[in-house]
Write the structure tokens for this entry.
Amino acid sequence: MQRLAFLIALLFTGLCHADDKLHRYLYAATPDGAQVESASGMGMLVFDMDDGFKFVRRIEGPQLKGGVRGLTGTTTARSLFYSTTDKRMGRLDLETDKIVWEKSFSGGCDRSSAMPDGSRIFAPTGWWEPRDSGGFVVIDGATGAELRRIKVGPGAHNSIMSPDGSRLFLGTVTTLTVFDPKDERVLMTIPDVGESGVFPFTVNSKLTLAFVCLGKHAGFDVVDLVAGKRIHRVLAGEAPIKHRTHGVALTPDETELWISDQDGKKLFIFDATQMPPAPKGHVELSMAGHGWVNFSADGAFAWSHTPDIFDARTKKQIATLRDEKGKPFGSSKLIEVHMRAGKVVRVGSEFGIGRKE
């Protein structure tokens, strides 16, 4: 009897240890508020990054009828916050797949940012808000209550929170604004970036440089975040390509910068170890669409708004995102989540920010 109990305990211990394995998932929202071509109904689709990006499950709780504008989340809160075109935002508990809250707001909600502890969410009022009253809706992360509005400028579109929570960046029309999110104070306003509107951007780990997508050409501006000014404009291709750029990402080690030419169905690659970054080539995409690009936390994989998954080192396509029916699926609203024994251990960023140590 004692031997049987010992064997059962040993088996139980083995199962617990087996469950301690780290699981990496890619969460993608559908429908994308700016891309309908590759949608798959409504919900959050979860893909297994460690098993060829195979479909795992669909989370059907979130009300995403207005189309998703962005995803943000934090490890501490163990949640994703999703925003939609119809001024709604919700909080999804990643450990239970349950909706904590889902509410409508007085403005927004575009690509939002969360404090690292999830206490406050900063939701841009949207590129579709042309008035000077545009800016942030500040939301209580625990309850979803609207706390206040921060007036910044028209077309408040994309926002990035630095991983340490020391800086918050917001793009409005040809302007990049830098905040201290702790007291919501504006630290710097940088005008004349991005050609027309401020489309997606990214920042390096030292928070000294920003790379801002151009609105009329395939290319980007390099912005000195210390001096507060644009220092370079870099165009992709042998001749100027008159497509807006919607998507820019640094590899985690900050050796490469990738940008999206969604109309041209390409991701252009630049050597970011020199300044200004120099062209290195490109990869072809299977479809056009909204445009996006990002990398896995370890820098091994690259993904975009298309179903295509690339080996970031070899630049070869190694997987295709497919829904539960086997249909190729694409979205520009994607975020990486790590789980161990059913618990969240890491929530990534939908932006390809630099993470060089």
In short: The first strand starts at residue 22 and ends at 30. Residues 4-17 have pLDDT under 50 and may be disordered.
